[in-house]
Design goal:
The structure is a homodimer. In chain A, helix 4 links the parallel strand 3 and strand 4. In chain A, helix 6 crosses helix 7, helix 13 crosses helix 14 and helix 17 runs antiparallel to helix 18. In chain A, strands 3-4-5-6-7-8-9-10 form an 8-stranded parallel barrel, surrounded by 8 helices. The first copy, chain A, is of the alpha/beta class. Chain A has 19 helices and 10 strands. At the A-B interface, helix 6, helix 9, helix 14, helix 15 and helix 16 of A face helix 6, helix 9, helix 14, helix 15 and helix 16 of B.
């Protein structure tokens, strides 16, 4: 049985108990959240995880790091290094988005090493193999696609992005909408071409039951992809995007009916003042299914610093109810991320998620900050460094611009915390 | 006459016209905003500026960069380099917060070179000179303080932070409140000690008319400092902070009565879900005076990455109506910023401000993003680089991880934008 099927029977599985323990909630809370579809635990039966992660209502906001080769950079070793960096800086999940090199071998190498849940986008492999075998992506058969999905599931992939909402209907809406950046999802673009040129419906939509069957067999969590997500602020919250979300909402219910865990992916590029509405819309149309957002980016012009743009959007989205933040790295829109980008991306998203955790009252979040501030008040540098997201960097910066006194070199002798302690204490003469 | 006095007489000054021109609004809009106290133009009669900046309602959100020596690092040349970096990356204003070295000489050197408005916190110099001359800050006389303020004003400082709201009354509130981090404002800490140990009222409050007289003479904009701002999430929006804001609201009106331009400073460390309330409270209590926020930081634990924490808070604050963002650098809470920190801090705050500008409908903001997205759609890399906040970095990242094709190396041959263009165009066989 899947976690969803167990939860519905009132059974709190070992996975649910471990998630509850990590989150400081009761196993019943997790079990009921899963039963209602508000929580998922991506954990393929065939993947050995060092711990389990719950994603959804009432739990800590989770962060995903995308890694993977491209046609220009196909070395698996680089990607394994990125995996290590992502885990070191505490990403909760990783997605292998490889599109270059031996895709099956790369995925298996990453799966072997990943102690945290792994997601993939099987259509990339299906598309690329079709080019190799049949000359063009447009020649892909539904069987080509489902064969790859089954391979990923059997290998142990914990969640898969499937762009089931790119359909004849939503493509019509897209055409009538008119957009600045049309489609920026690779899966969405492939399916658009396939549907239009073969004059057939999206196999992921038409044969959705076949997809559910595979997912159920391995307890793969479906992540319903947003192939029509806006790729620019100008395209945000438009009719094409919302049409796709309507379709995804219906597919969420069909997944639940089949006992399959499911979450929904969201934008993308969204103006600051439309983010909360986007989250509320997803929660309403998808009946509370966990929401997995990419950023969102709050401006199109921050290439080189899109991790900051994404952290702003992610914090607001998570405050509004988004459950799962896909990081964006500084190299987004410019090139394949390197190790530093992975680190910067994970940390930026963790700041966003943690800020929302505090506001959402997630257990332990507030206490972490309070402990840090007490250490700050006491000018206890060892404790401050220990509590940082990146202790190594904090220690380096503090040490590099050393101060002659107990306070840091920002304020030196004029440290407010030190002054107040002296004023209110026994040493006003020092001031 | 000050800009405020001119505006009240219905006169649109040259400064107002230039601000209107830069913002794409009418001179009347600026004039009326200034007359109502919703807009300030910090421009000391004695400071030659290359352009003028309006701060307030209906205008682009502005960004300030703090520079300045500390007791550990007193070299003016480093600070002049930081000034150049801040201007290069388009900070709108700079504050010289120096507390080490020859403070008058440093300020004058920065003023000479700064083509953008400069702010200072005169009490730092007054306090440090008092230590040198009278042995302890507690021995500072009101005349010591006002002499320094007058020196700054006569030198051409465009706006000064004055912590007029740290009074006997607000200190009592602070004591009864109880806090994790008491006071983190250097000016606030100095005044607390001075008031308590001399058993006298804050001279900046008691002799506020004297302050107004100096400000009016040189048209220095007062920036009413928040000496009791929260230095940790646990202290946010507490009674001490709000008591000080009540006092500042009254002082705003007295400044207006005296023909003096005035803005109000705000926190600090604020949980994500309290930021909008903080802005609304300031706008209401201070009758629409421009709001100048420091960050705000949305978590206490991001040392090393506080520019990201500050960008999240700044974007939300600006969306809610804050007008002026003081940057926070990656070295905040750890040490004096270096050149890279200044750059990172300015860019992070500009992303926050720009994201809010788009949502606030500031002229030109939306168009910038749209032009960028059109260039992105066309895979026009020169144009994309040109439109970035940091063209040099964008070009470097793009070039360093070069792609063999027209798309970047992130997606390589599987670029969605390229695929869609091919699918919808004449080249489906390529896909």
């Amino acid at each position: 049985m899947t976690q969803l099927e167990l939860a519905r029977k009132g059974i709190a599985s070992l996975e649910m108990k471990l998630v509850a323990d990590a989150e400081g909630v009761t196993p019943e809370f997790v079990q009921q959240g899963i039963a209602q579809g508000n929580i998922v635990i991506p954990a393929n039966r065939n993947h050995k995880l060092s711990r389990y992660y719950g994603i959804g209502k009432g739990l800590r906001v989770k962060v995903n790091a995308n890694i993977g080769t491209s046609s220009d950079y196909g070395d698996v070793n680089n990607e394994l290094e990125k995996l290590r960096v992502a885990i070191e800086y505490k990403a909760d999940t990783v997605m292998d988005l490889s599109t270059g090199g031996d895709l099956s071998a790369i995925r298996r190498a990453i799966l072997d090493e990943s102690t945290i849940p792994l997601g993939t986008v099987p259509i990339y492999q299906a598309g690329i193999e079709t080019i190799e075998r049949r000359g063009a992506i447009l020649n892909m058969t539904p069987d080509d696609l489902f064969r790859v999905i089954e391979e990923h599931a059997a290998d142990g992939v914990d969640f898969v992005t499937v762009h089931c909402g790119v359909t004849r209907v939503s493509i019509e809406r897209l055409k009538r909408q008119g957009r600045v950046t049309d489609i920026v999802s690779r899966g969405g673009a492939l399916l658009l071409g396939w549907i239009l040129h073969n004059d057939q419906e999206n196999p992921l939509y038409e044969q959705y039951d076949r997809l559910l069957e595979i997912a159920r067999k391995f307890d793969v969590t479906l992540s319903l992809g947003d192939g029509l997500r806006p790729g620019s602020l100008a395209d945000a919250t438009d009719r094409a995007q919302v049409e796709e979300l309507l379709i995804l909402g219906e597919l969420v219910e069909r997944a639940w009916d089949a006992g399959v865990q499911v979450m929904v992916e969201g934008p993308g590029h969204v103006p600051l003042d439309q983010i909360a509405a986007n989250v509320q819309l997803q929660k309403s149309l998808c009946k509370g299914a966990p929401f997995y957002v990419l950023g969102p980016l709050v401006t199109d012009i921050a290439a080189g610093y899109d991790h900051i743009s994404g952290a702003i959007g992610g914090a607001i989205a998570a405050l509004a109810g988004a459950d799962f933040l896909c990081y964006v790295t500084p190299s987004e829109h410019l090139g394949l991320p390197d190790l530093d980008d992975v680190k910067e991306g994970v940390i930026a998203s963790r700041i966003a998620g943690h800020a929302a955790d505090i506001a959402r009252g997630v257990k332990g979040a507030w206490e972490w900050d309070r402990t840090m501030s007490e250490a700050r008040k006491n000018l206890d540098w060892e404790e401050q460094v220990r509590l940082c997201l990146d202790p190594q960097k904090a220690r380096h910066v503090h040490g590099q611009r050393a101060s002659s006194g107990k306070a840091c070199s920002m304020c030196g002798e004029l440290c407010a915390l030190q002054l107040v302690t002296d004023f209110l204490g026994a040493k006003p003469e020092k001031c």
